[in-house]
Write a structure and sequence with these properties.
Elements: H1 3-8, H2 12-27, H3 29-36, E1 40-45, E2 48-53, H4 56-65, H5 67-77, E3 83-88, H6 89-93, E4 114-115, H7 153-163, E5 175-179, H8 185-198, E6 203-207, H9 208-220, H10 224-231, E7 236-240, H11 248-263, E8 267-272, H12 284-291, E9 294-298, H13 303-320, H14 328-337, H15 342-359, H16 365-371, H17 373-377, H18 386-396, H19 401-405, H20 411-427, H21 432-438, H22 444-460, H23 462-476
Parallel strand pairs: 2-3, 5-8, 5-9, 6-7, 7-8
Antiparallel strand pairs: 1-2, 3-4
Length: about 475
Amino acid sequence: MTDRQAEGSGNTPEAWTRIKRRLRVEFGEDVYSSWFGRLELQGVAEGVARLTVPTRFLKSWIEAHYADRVLSLFRTEHDGVQQIAISVRSAVLREAPCERKAPGSAANGHAAPVGRDADQAQPQRRDEGGDLSGNPLDPRLTFDSFLVGRSNALAHAAGERVSRHAEGAPLYNPLYIHAGVGLGKTHLLQAIGNAARGERRRVIYLTADRFMYGFVAALKAQTALAFKERLRGIDLLIIDDVQFLQGKQIQQEFGHTINALVDAGKQIIVAADRPPAELENLDERVRSRLAGGLVVEMASLDEDLRARILSARVNAVRAAHPSFHVGEAVVSYIAKAIATNGRDLDGAVNRLLAHATLSGTAVTLETAEVAIRDLVRNREPKRVKIEDIQKLVASRYNVSRADILSERRTAAVVRPRQIAMYLSKALTLRSLPEIGRRFGGRDHTTVLHAVRKIETNLTADAALAEEIELLKRMLQE
């Protein structure tokens, strides 16, 4: 089949769907979401599959680490593809008028193809090498604007303490803060950074992807040593979303940086969406170092705190829309109905504002119920942990968790172990290799066998099906 025939056969979308499915299975949910979730296929022409991503960092990272694998899958699934080209989506839409083309780059903002005949070494812009300016701090995100409740009081107190300059070694180092989406973690990190800068301390705030981008760019520009020295010459390092830190070399450098700063008496603050022990993709030595400091969780917002957050959001909106009014009864109803996170509370206020401005009527309980209906219906389910699954199954079948993780192969242990593996695959986003590691370092094929075994038995054993459903309900309550 020729390239042109393949392009005209109408199988490109189906091939791309299969490729994404294979990437998800091969690399696991976490890696897929981090690197491939925003990778989109623009089209196939003249044997080149043109892909787009939203940022230059994603483009650089995928080209450096995954381009060969993506190309291999394309050649397997689509006969007409011999090369791939990755572009930044904004660059496809517009091209900077003063930007000079690098030799060998393609026209119209497209990247040069990656393939057997493609030039793998793409020239880097001079200002990218070794850049460590950090992510900007939002001056509005301060301790004064951070609302404190039972769920975040400890994290807030620890953050205030480390933001102040003190003689001697830091008391909490590293400070590790973990929280789910929309619970105020980033606000607290930025408040710490702003307060520390107010005391003329040298602060760098970086997201994990910014750290990776800076390190990769420094390696390409041969300025890695200067990058490391500058990073270790600060007073306070803040790293957000460390669960996205990928790559053995980058993780090793991150670990060396933590050790160097701690040994020098400098403060480190790290944040993620889960405790250090649950960061399966992170190097074990880095996890151990992070767990050795103060680990603080920011739990779900309690109802009183949600009501105060809502009132603050409404007051902020009223500054721009003086006629916007939300009564206490409506605030109380929303705070009770939306128990997920602060971003959903923002969404609720935006919906109420749209109703008030577009319809020209007052916000009542009835209109509020209609406005936030989708937010209430789409509540996030409880996040189930593999440890919780193992403990519940062990208790249910009168074995110990150590038995489930052991090499024992008696029927009394094998059956609960397979059920626990099945539930881990069904109720968590962990990949098969990750689940295997959490079950005593087993291979992913062992997990796959257990999952398929239970799935097969469920269709023939009504009692087992009922038991599995009961366990699911108990874990999700």
